[in-house]
Amino acid sequence: MGWRLIRTYTILVYLFMFLPIVVVVLLSFNANQFGSFPMTGLSTRWFEALWNNDAILRAFRTSIVLGLMTATISTVLGVLASLALVRYKIPGRNLITTLLIAPILVPEVVLAVALLLFLNFLNIGKSFTLLLAGHVIFTLPFVILVVQARLVSIRRDVEEAALSLGASPMQTFFSVTLPLLMPAVAAGGLFAFTISFDDITGTLFWKPGGIETVPTQIFSMLRNSISPEINALGTVIIVLTVGLPLIGVAVARILATKSGA
Amino acid sequence: MSIEQREARQPWILLAPALTAIGLLLIVPLMFIVVYSFWLKSAAGADTPGFFLDNWTEALTDRFYRDILLNTLKIAAITTIACALLGYPAAYFISRSKGNKMILLLLLMLPFWISYIIRTMSWINILGVSGALNSAMIYVGIIDEPIQMLYNQTTVILGLVHFLLPFMVLNIFVSLDGIDTNLEDAASSLGATRWQGFLQVTLPLSLPGLAAGGLLCFVLSAGTYITPVILGGPRDAMFANLVYEAIIRQLNWPLGSALSLLLLVVLGVLVLIYNRYLGMAQLAKGLG
Questions:
Q1: CB within 8 Å of B13: residues ≥ 6 apart
Q2: Is CB count within 10 Å lower at the N or C end of chain B?
Q3: Single pTM value for the model
Q4: Tell me, what's the ipTM?
């Protein structure tokens, strides 16, 4: 296979990946009242409709709060666990790692059913707390993988130097290890936030009546028809989700250069 | 307590919160639904505890469930193969390109960040009766009437491929990027054509990445619930849809437990085979 052929093929793969996104953005500016082609003109009316849609704004608020809480909890748990796995020789290390990344491999629907029925058995019904617990389990493996990968590349010597200069383990962690680890902590937290913000299957099982996240809100709107409003919402999400990681990557790079790693 | 004992306890203190979370929210619930799957459905929320095989008999012998399980595995297999065929050359291009590899990779990862439900739904904009493709074909004059292209098994697979392709590319890329390119040069200096060099050196060395990507694609597509609901027709339900029906609609929790465990066992066997030959570390590489 020639190099040019591979290049053309790759370009087609990229087009395939970006086509749906382009179409969503395009249609969200459609003046037509049906979210479909042919387009009749450009308009921002669907973004205005979105802004005035209380249900969607509520869903946004829920998703953001849920995502931030999930990211915080997952990152704290993930950093602690990664420290133990990378910095100490512990028996059964492989088994523990497998256990901690298991939620990626268990089908989401199985995990959702198990958690729902078990908590129900304990008389803990559907609630925001259940939703949060579930999201933490989903996102924890990703945080651990990202943080571990970074931690392996931080040299032990700098920590030992701090310790030998009289710093306590706590001081060493907060003034040496954590700053060096910051890019991974930021990336892991962002990962957790995005996965939580995007999750739908688990959320459908766990959410109590009356609470909607952005994906479940879109899902229930889709049952009627695909309105231009959904495309506008899609565009907002695309801008947020593409913009946020890009800013995240930029920040991580700046932090990495500053810390000299 | 001696210093050694304190030292030995430290990692466990660090691990305790994460292990407690996984234990209480994943392991114990999974063991609980194993037990629950042997209970008998009575009124919702008041099922009869005991050891009844009814749910398992139903889950394993009912042709309806078996057909959907087989269909689910078939869809997952086709999706995985399609992802490999689309993803391998792209990953190869990215890993061997002279330009900025990371930008190319990041570009391909961008759609991965975009909401799954929005990406799935967007195919309706493209393939729908008044979608982009039909409009374009009518405009050009290939067809006079719009064609119904949506709501079948092919569109379900299309949606899944679009969702999972970045996973595949990332895994293969990580593998390919770790291969010393001198090996290919060495092969060609020993008289192999580029194609032979690729087939006998690069491809075998990149198989762990391909396998890791394949496993992820297969497991994630076999467990999918949303894609068939949005892009499939009434007869394109996948196994996760059955679980949802049993649990949320019919409130038949014992049967729902048995069905979800069946799915877990089928996919679990696959993960175990994978782990036996390649180990979880490979998977961790491609996800981080």
A1: none
A2: N
A3: 0.89
A4: 0.89
